[in-house]
């Protein structure tokens, strides 16, 4: 406690000096700036050595010796009472049993920007502060370098055998913590498990740890190396499978390390982490490694709750290598620093970057002949000469190696091909690339060595240029990773998956775009995505700073860019969802139940912990509502209800007016129409053309329906191209139906840009009797401006009151129902006019006041539902429905005992467990050959289907029909059991695209031959084959479960037939 005493006995000169002289100093690679230190040590520290330096006032000394000295002192201070125990209780733990340093150890020392330490404690735990921790005389592992503060605190937690979550930026040094946990377990003759989210990362981590510790094994399903080792590297799915099967290995495990735990938010696979964590025994301790997550303490509290053990949080925003962020505007002459290494946003530079963009981002200058290609319904620019110029600039300034992120496999390759004139390697490096590449492909047969992808990529690699995306052959991806690590690739074009876990930093990161297609819309990158990818910039110990460059092809709002660069990382949100396999496994396990899984899920925890905030919010809204006093509220209420009814009926009338039968005949070129999309009024525009929408209408229940001629047309069947005045910064994204999202009207006071925007008929909010002249070709900006000038002249002539088509006289709507609707609207309008409030001078004020009160009332109703939801066991109703499905199908008895079909489904971890079990039990596979069996099983692992089933040969079409019929029967039972499901979507998830490809492969076809049968990338084909292998292994276990040796042999033979050549080539890391 001597340091605490020193904190109290200090001189005021220290802080004064820091605040007046050192606020502008930048520490570089030291732990903190003096400004931050002065903020931390508000009580001042009397340390003679530092005082001497500070009083000298010599800038050279201050910027060199003092910074190093201060860094050491701060590092030491972090080992005194720096812990901050979360103010809220852990789960249901009472506040008084949560350690608080304010109560026992003086000031609460929370060091922002360096390290934040918190700990979640179970009820009644006898916690000893980190400051009183005595390290072992002989540490389990000694490092040849000084540890960072966060590493020291995390390792101290491990030495105390207490779980820890380390949340830090990429390349901050989290691996050091994992290595210490491994060393401590091995030194105590205990086993340790290291899990990673993907097989590729497991392979790479196995190689690293095997070189470091020796006694390391690997389990990834298709690979098993040294399974009796003290340290086992595996995917999280393998660990979950071991837990469900009660593996004996787990009895000897003392530590489990979860790498990249932030991937628990993944919608598809995140649930695996939750299942695994809930199932692990309480005596196991955990080291969680994560990117920065703002709600790290919430996760630690959940772990503390379910395992009744402390869980520390060591959080740091500190980057060993600070980042500088630049913008390279489309077609600009240079780059602009928008955020410096101190994290300061440069507004003036940002505005200069915007000003340097072409005024019309659709116009291409004469010297920039960029070819455009369609991707996901949007247009992308291949890049030259921008991408070429920026790479040349990077090489000239020695900013390489550089990773250039592109958001799409094809886009990634197109950008790389623009570098054909650059050779970034010398002759010696050319030879090294040849040597490494030749050694890597030596294990392939001659046919595979001549694959186009292998032959075409070597010239790029020679020149120091690489490509990395999921469509590449796994072998090639690993070669490229090795070449990049060896410095033989100077420029790497990669998709965002490269940022997932692989420890391969560069000096510079370039974003080819700041927006991406997410499967539904074109949107800006989130701050979390940006942080994850930009974190690859800056190599610790090699670079003074990392460089991040954004190629901005669109004008971006300053607030959007600021949030992207300086916003928080994405929080860790549970992706927990129920699956039949989980329900059956949990029912089968002794002492477990699906309800146990629900109660202990992070999903349930997050909703329960939100309860106090919800109740506070509810009380505040109640008070706000009660404070609204409205005179003659009954009259105002009546007026409000009339207005609401009128709006509903007006929308109904609009639906009729917009029906294709009545509207399309008037939508000639030049017709003025008023457009409203998503509640936003775009004002008047002019029709350019009308066409049918690109997507077909499919009934949700999958059943045939007969519609009348009038019903056969819908407002969603037609798309109108309309000339609208739009905000020039709009990001235009095309939807599958041909319409557009991301468009905004110009802001008040701004001129805007005329754009041709495709909209559905439903966006019409008025059809005028007026038409304006339209040029024959409006592709040019000038032609669009001319047409818009004509439109504005018409609006000025009519003083913005453009005459509308009369529904009856002009449009000829004589439907009796429409006439009644019009009568109802007239009645409501009459009642509104006669309402006493209508003549009140306070009409607007009172109406808005009552509207506000009703809005609050709606929020209160929604909050009440949330509160009731948080009190209940979440997903309980879904669990009951799923159990009903399992009973109907014979997987569970009425007493919830797992029957034989249920035990079969427990074995199936890949593919749809219910459909596969039904097929297996109905002897669907009995008469099939192993080759056809493998082909049929491919329907359960292909993620996206584009092949028309009608083009299948009958030998494939017949079993595919049975799969669809089985899926339909299960879907109908599911609906009958009150489970929400889209039948059409469920049935359509079984794809036949690779049936023939797999069949040919099992018959001995060469890889290049099967590649010619599909448009799927080679790497994606191999990924599907490896998923197929996992599915076949599950079926082997399922057949063994029912004692059918013939089927077991058939699935095993199918497995053997697909496991050959380049499809299952061994990883270079093994």
Automatic annotation (TrEMBL):
Pfam families: DEAD, DSHCT, Helicase_C, MTR4-like_stalk, MTR4_beta-barrel. Its main location: nucleus. Residues 386-590 form the Helicase C-terminal domain. One of its GO terms (cellular component) is nucleus. Residues 355-381 are annotated as: Disordered. The keyword Nucleotide-binding applies. It comes from the Eukaryota. InterPro entries: Beta-barrel_MTR4 (IPR025696), DEAD/DEAH_box_helicase_dom (IPR011545), Helicase_ATP-bd (IPR014001), Helicase_C-like (IPR001650), MTR4-like_stalk (IPR048392), P-loop_NTPase (IPR027417), RNA-DNA_Helicase (IPR050699), SKI2-like (IPR016438). One of its GO terms (molecular function) is RNA helicase activity. Gene3D superfamilies: 1.10.3380.30, 2.40.30.300, P-loop containing nucleotide triphosphate hydrolases (3.40.50.300). Keywords: ATP-binding, Helicase, Hydrolase, Nucleotide-binding, Nucleus. It is found in: Nucleus. Residues 357-368 have a biased composition (Basic and acidic residues). Residues 155-311 form the Helicase ATP-binding domain. GO terms for biological process: maturation of 5.8S rRNA; RNA catabolic process. Belongs to the helicase family. SKI2 subfamily. This is 6819_t:CDS:1. It comes from Paraglomus brasilianum. The lineage of its organism: Eukaryota, Fungi, Fungi incertae sedis, Mucoromycota, Glomeromycotina.
């Amino acid at each position: 406690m001597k340091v605490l005493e020193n904190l109290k006995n200090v001189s005021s000169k220290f802080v004064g000096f820091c605040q007046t002289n050192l606020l502008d100093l930048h520490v570089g690679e030291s732990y903190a700036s003096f400004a931050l230190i002065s903020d931390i040590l508000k009580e001042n520290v009397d340390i003679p050595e530092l005082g001497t330096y500070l009083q000298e006032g010599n800038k050279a000394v201050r910027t060199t010796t003092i910074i190093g000295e201060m860094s050491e002192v701060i590092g030491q201070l972090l080992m005194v009472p720096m812990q901050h125990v979360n103010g809220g209780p852990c789960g249901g733990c009472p506040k008084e049993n949560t350690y608080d340093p304010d109560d026992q150890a003086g000031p609460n020392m929370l060091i922002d920007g360096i390290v934040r330490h918190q700990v979640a404690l179970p009820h009644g735990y006898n916690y000893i502060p980190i400051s009183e921790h005595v390290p072992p005389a002989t540490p389990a592992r000694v490092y040849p370098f000084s540890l960072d503060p966060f590493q020291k605190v995390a390792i101290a937690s491990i030495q105390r055998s207490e779980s820890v979550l380390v949340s830090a930026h990429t390349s901050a040094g989290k691996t050091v913590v994992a290595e210490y946990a491994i060393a401590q377990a091995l030194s105590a003759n205990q086993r340790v498990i290291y899990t990673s989210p993907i097989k590729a990362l497991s392979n790479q981590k196995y190689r690293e740890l095997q070189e470091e510790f020796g006694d390391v094994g690997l389990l990834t399903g298709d690979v098993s190396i040294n399974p009796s080792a003290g340290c086992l590297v595996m995917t999280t799915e393998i660990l979950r499978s071991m837990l469900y099967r009660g593996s004996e290995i787990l009895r000897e495990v003392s530590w489990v390390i979860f790498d990249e735990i932030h991937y628990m938010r993944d919608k598809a696979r995140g649930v695996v982490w939750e299942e695994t964590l809930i199932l692990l025994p309480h005596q196991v301790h955990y080291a969680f490694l994560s990117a920065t997550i703002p709600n790290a303490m919430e996760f630690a509290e959940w772990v503390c709750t379910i395992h009744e053990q402390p869980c520390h949080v060591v959080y740091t925003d500190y980057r060993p290598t600070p980042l500088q962020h630049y913008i390279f505007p489309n077609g600009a002459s240079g780059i602009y620093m928008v955020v410096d290494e101190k994290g300061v946003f440069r507004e003036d530079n940002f505005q200069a970057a915007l000003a340097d963009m072409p005024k019309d981002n659709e116009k291409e200058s004469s010297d920039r002949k960029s070819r455009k290609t369609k991707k996901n319904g949007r247009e992308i620019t291949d890049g030259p000469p921008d991408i070429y110029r920026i790479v040349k600039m990077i090489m000239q300034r020695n900013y390489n190696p550089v990773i250039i992120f592109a958001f799409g496999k094809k886009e990634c390759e197109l950008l790389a091909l623009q570098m054909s004139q650059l050779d970034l390697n010398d002759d010696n490096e050319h030879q090294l690339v040849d040597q490494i590449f030749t050694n890597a492909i030596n294990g392939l047969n001659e046919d595979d060595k001549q694959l186009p992808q292998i032959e075409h990529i070597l010239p790029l690699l020679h020149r120091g240029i690489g490509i990395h995306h999921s469509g590449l052959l796994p072998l090639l991806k690993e070669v490229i990773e090795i070449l990049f690590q060896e410095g033989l690739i100077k420029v790497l074009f990669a998709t965002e998956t490269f940022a997932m876990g692989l420890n391969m930093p560069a000096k510079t990161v370039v974003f080819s775009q700041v927006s991406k297609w997410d499967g539904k819309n074109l949107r800006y990158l989130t701050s979390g995505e940006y942080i994850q990818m930009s974190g690859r910039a800056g190599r610790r110990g090699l670079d003074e700073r990392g460089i991040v460059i954004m190629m901005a092809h669109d004008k971006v709002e300053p607030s959007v860019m600021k949030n992207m660069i300086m916003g928080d990382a994405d929080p860790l949100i549970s992706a927990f969802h129920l699956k039949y396999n989980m329900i059956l496994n949990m029912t089968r396990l002794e002492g477990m139940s699906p309800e146990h899984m629900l109660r202990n899920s992070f999903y349930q925890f997050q909703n329960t912990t939100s309860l106090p905030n919800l109740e506070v919010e509810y009380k505040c809204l109640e008070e706000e509502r009660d404070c609204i006093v409205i005179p003659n509220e009954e009259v105002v209420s009546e007026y409000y209800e009339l207005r609401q009814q009128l709006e509903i009926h007006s929308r109904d009338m609009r639906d009729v007016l917009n029906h294709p039968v009545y509207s399309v005949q008037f939508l000639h070129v030049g017709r003025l129409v008023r457009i409203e999309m998503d509640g936003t009024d775009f004002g008047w525009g002019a029709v350019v053309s009308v066409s049918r929408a690109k997507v077909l209408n499919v009934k949700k229940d999958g059943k045939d329906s007969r519609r009348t001629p009038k019903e056969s047309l819908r407002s969603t069947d037609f798309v109108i191209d309309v000339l609208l005045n739009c905000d020039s910064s709009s990001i235009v994204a095309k939807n599958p139906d041909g319409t557009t999202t991301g468009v905004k009207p110009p802001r008040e006071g701004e001129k805007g840009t005329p754009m041709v925007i495709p909209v559905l008929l439903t966006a019409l909010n008025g059809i005028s009797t007026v038409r304006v002249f339209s040029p024959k070709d409006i592709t040019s900006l000038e032609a669009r401006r001319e047409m818009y000038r004509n439109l504005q002249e018409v609006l000025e002539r009519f003083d913005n009151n453009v005459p509308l088509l009369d529904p009856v006289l002009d449009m000829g709507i004589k439907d009796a129902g429409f006439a009644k609707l019009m009568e109802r609207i007239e009645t409501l309008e009459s009642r509104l006019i006669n309402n006493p409030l209508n003549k009140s001078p306070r009409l607007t004020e009172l109406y808005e006041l009552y509207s506000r009160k009703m809005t609050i009332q709606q929020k209160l109703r929604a909050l009440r539902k949330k509160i009731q939801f948080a009190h209940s066991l979440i997903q309980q109703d879904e669990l009951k429905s799923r159990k009903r499905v399992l009973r109907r199908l014979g997987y569970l008895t009425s007493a919830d005992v797992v029957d034989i079909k249920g035990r079969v489904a427990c074995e199936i971890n890949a593919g749809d467990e219910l459909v596969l079990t039904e097929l297996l039990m109905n002897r669907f596979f009995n008469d099939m050959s192993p080759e056809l069996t493998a082909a049929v099983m491919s329907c359960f692992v292909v993620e996206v289907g584009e092949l028309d089933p009608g083009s299948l040969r009958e030998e494939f079409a017949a079993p595919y029909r049975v799969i669809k019929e089985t899926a339909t029967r299960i879907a109908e039972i599911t609906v009958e059991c009150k489970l929400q499901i889209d039948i059409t979507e469920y049935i359509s998830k079984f794809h036949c695209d690779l049936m023939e490809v797999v069949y040919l492969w099992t018959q001995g076809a060469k890889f290049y031959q099967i590649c010619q049968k599909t448009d799927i990338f080679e790497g994606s084909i191999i990924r599907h084959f490896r998923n197929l292998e996992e599915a076949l292994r599950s079926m082997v276990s399922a057949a063994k479960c029912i004692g059918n040796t013939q089927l077991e042999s058939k699935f095993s033979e199918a497995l053997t037939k697909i496991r050959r050549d380049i499809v299952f080539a061994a990883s270079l890391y093994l």
